[in-house]
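Handout, page 2. Input:
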Amino acid sequence: MLEQFDALLLARLQFAFTVSFHFIFPSFSIGLASYLAVLEGLWLWTGREVYLRLFKYWVKIFALAFGMGVVSGIVMSYQFGTNWSVFSDRAGPVIGPLMAYEVLTAFFLEAGFLGVMLFGMNRVGRALHYTATLAVAVGTFISAFWILSVNSWMHTPTGYAFNEVGQFVPLDWWTIIFNPSFPYRLMHTVMAAYLTTALVVGAVGAFHLLRDRINEGARVMFTMAIGMIAVAAPVQIFLGDQHGLNTLEHQPIKIMAMEGHFESHPDGAPLVLFGLPNEAEGKVDYAVSVPKLSSLILKHSLDAPLDGLDTVPREEWPPVAVVFWSFRIMVGLGMLMLLLGATGVVAYFRGGLYHWRPLHYLALAMGPAGFIAVIAGWVTTEVGRQPYTVYGMLRTADSVSPLEAPAVAASLLMFIVIYFTVFSVGTFYILKLMGHAPYTGEPGPEREIGPHRAAGITPAPAVSPERTIGGRSSEVRT
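Output:
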């Protein structure tokens, strides 16, 4: 079937597959790194053993997610040279240095302190270990900073000029880095990572509360997760609204596709809740809409005019149906997150946070919601930018390498097989780690995934102090 597609479409599908698969792990590890810093900080501040127990519980999961994120991300950089060589040549003078800054700052910071964080709990002092944990958390944020700066520049390019061979060349790095959409995209994406992590932590806590409602670790993680969701969900909705207003200013065609506005509305545009976008006829079939609400949201006036896709040449339209539905999936899940947070707050103040089973089932069902919402949001953003790689300046059709479709199809099939084989094993092991409740004496990574195991060395069994049994001294091995 793939040979029926042209090389451009296959290259787009390949990059969409790898980037979607890759971002599942950073969206989790960014939030989880900060959660680990909070847990260790609370342990150092209060001395409560439960926080140390939860730190050791989640740091093993973080190590696996971080590793899979790094491995899955390497493939994307190769695609810039194999499938998108024209884009790399044209935009390389701008995006190349920004990607290098990410490696020189974030990746070196994470790599330098990750080993101390994972294996240094019993080898360095508490202050140094906490410094390493904070450094890893800061490194994940810096990584998001540079990657989102690159991505945002591709949406709202500024601070550049063209040289004699048609390349983008930098004129003002400050303007390039802090391009018009970058602050909104950064805040919205990082908050999404925090929400994704909170939903996973909440689902794990709920799972163990359903099995044992008096487990202290499950109670603490569930309380922290519900608190984070209750705060972050409304903040994320606000940030999404601000990002939408910024997009309306700089990428109005994307907003038209998101809203399903095929026609212009001079006296106030309706908010289309559901429907089937019909690009051939330029309308939304079976539309369920609220009159003038879209104008109120986007222009803060019921009668504010909004242009539609009828003002744009057809060759400038993105795939409307994809953008329309991915946006609604993201928003719908955001509303469910808001409901979960509000319900958790009510249960907390009524004393039923650890006993109300419907809440626990809801939190468990919402565990994957963050990942789905993040992918849906990226689909909305990236597909809505089409038909451009650098918005308004470099078309996607002009960015692809001169490859034949069978070559791209072969690499796409290879990626699909390898990704699902390798990362399914990693994901299975993460779920296995989540399957047991945190308990007293929770082993850290040095016990379960320590360097000696990676080297294939079986450590000698730990020996407890001697005990006297029947009047004789005897070693008790654990």
